[in-house]
Specification:
Number of helices: 10
Region (Disordered): 1-67
Number of strands: 0
GO cellular component, one term: ribosome
GO molecular function: structural constituent of ribosome
Helix content: 55-70%
Organism: Cordyceps fumosorosea (strain ARSEF 2679) (Isaria fumosorosea)
Radius of gyration: 57 Å
CATH architecture of the domain at 137-208: Irregular
Structural class: mainly alpha
Largest sheet: none
Strand content: under 5%
Biased composition (Low complexity): 31-41
CATH superfamily of the domain at 137-208: Ribosomal protein S18
Shape: elongated
CATH topology of the domain at 137-208: 30s Ribosomal Protein S18
Order of helices and strands: HHHHHHHHHH
Distance between the termini: 182 Å
Length: 216
């Protein structure tokens, strides 16, 4: 009887009850890892080198002196800016106080008694300083205003171009003389000798035709 072929024997051996000879396990060696530096480690090393170089530079005498000079310059600039700001605030406060003083001309001293009505604009206006008169023409020349109704050139000095009577601030007359001049002007205007809407025609003519006045 012939022996079976090798493939048949291997096939039958799989279904046989006899245990096959166990092959020894193969030895598996772990892969050898080479120590290659990663990108993060490289960056950390570069930063350390930079910090070490910067520390060395900062410890140098030239860098420390430049740092002190820069700090002193910054402190000086900050001080000058603070001083300018204080001057601006002082000027603003002074201007504001002057405005308040103009609105309240009365000067209060300790011990003064006042009522709320004394702080009203009408009462405060009584304490404003009036402009002093330079000269009273009527007193200087010794004139009688009621007798000067024919002197149109004098009347023009106390009236506007539209025939209105000027205020005592503009005429610089005393109250008594101001009333007399105003009474004289109203009388002559009521008589129709002086116009109420413009200057006297003879005075207007002399302004437009000064050559005729020189001939006369």
């Amino acid at each position: 009887m012939r022996a079976p072929s090798t493939p048949a024997v291997s096939f039958l051996r799989q279904f046989s009850s006899t245990a096959a000879a166990a092959h020894p396990p193969r030895e598996t060696h772990p892969p050898v890892r080479t120590s290659t530096p990663s990108s993060t480690s490289r960056l950390q090393s570069i930063n350390k080198d930079r910090m070490s170089v910067g520390g060395a530079n900062s410890r140098s005498p030239g860098a420390s002196s430049m740092h002190r000079i820069g700090q002193a310059y910054r402190e000086r600039a900050a001080a000058s800016l603070h001083m300018k700001q204080e001057q601006i605030d002082f000027l603003k406060n002074k201007k504001l106080s002057n405005e308040y003083l103009r609105q309240m001309p009365r000067r209060w001293v300790p011990g003064d008694v006042y009522s709320p009505h004394d702080l009203s604009p009408r009462e405060m206006d009584k304490w404003r300083r009036r402009n002093q008169r330079e000269a009273d023409v009527v007193d200087i020349l010794g004139l009688r205003p009621l007798d000067m109704y024919k002197n149109f050139s004098l009347i023009q000095e106390f009236t506007t171009s539209s025939g209105q009577i000027k205020h005592s601030k503009d005429t610089a007359l005393r109250p008594v003389n101001q009333r007399k001049v105003a009474k004289m002007i109203r009388r002559i205007q009521g008589m129709g000798l002086y116009p109420t809407i413009h200057d006297h025609p003879e005075l207007i003519r002399s302004d437009f035709y000064p050559s005729e006045q020189r001939r006369g």
